[in-house]
């Protein structure tokens, strides 16, 4: 009897939730946050991004349009996360609680329109660690697979001890954590030529993952299920420098028990690296069982043909099918 091939699963796709923006529209702090975002991106990027997002609103909000696009891409299942613009890590506790509740409920409602093809992730207010466990539990109670988090919150890195209860609950529950940066703290240095994204996003991924590795979070919580967007940024392909520092310097090696490169095989990474050679190196560094198909649907920095981009890496057939869907299907079944 011939085994059925695994479904094609895209773990990096977004939904836009206008009700969240309506909720925060009159809240103190929003204008300041928007001004910071504008400074970090620069006027030229904002002039392009506005119309780009408007053109993609149907794919971000209409399930029928989403499913048609998935069919055209050959994608069977999407793991849908809110647009990172909905993080609103500037918000006070009361507002943050309303944001995560609305995000979780709205994302679950979107996915419920096609439950055999759409799985969802909610949000956690990282700026208020005391709310993080409740936010995760709320997401899981809506039938979501886990939550999406950024690379940091204002004044807090992911290595902050205040997040320990959140990591413990995520590990215990088997929730999927999707690490997707929004914004870059290099600020105006990246305010031209869309460097805020092309350099900023992979930098933020590398910094966040390094905090999780070097602080010992992954030693204390080896069962975490964490997917890093954008192939984990610069870290997987430049991990040798981290290994050297860990071996050569007492300060670098003080917080984690093993070579930094060994932790790549405890993490998951999406395939969205825009270069078949980099994708091959990511698979080599992390293992074919740790890389998952990702498209960033439907944004312009995504892959319009994610399966084609994966095929261009010319992986062995078993590895190709693992990344195409078998790895993610196993995670979602476990969830």
From TrEMBL:
It comes from the Bacteria. Its EC number is 4.1.1.45. The keyword Lyase applies. GO terms for molecular function: aminocarboxymuconate-semialdehyde decarboxylase activity. SUPFAM superfamilies: Metallo-dependent hydrolases. Residues 9-333 form the Amidohydrolase-related domain. Keywords: Lyase. The keyword Lyase applies. It is an enzyme of class 4 (lyase). This is Aminocarboxymuconate-semialdehyde decarboxylase. It comes from Streptomyces rishiriensis.
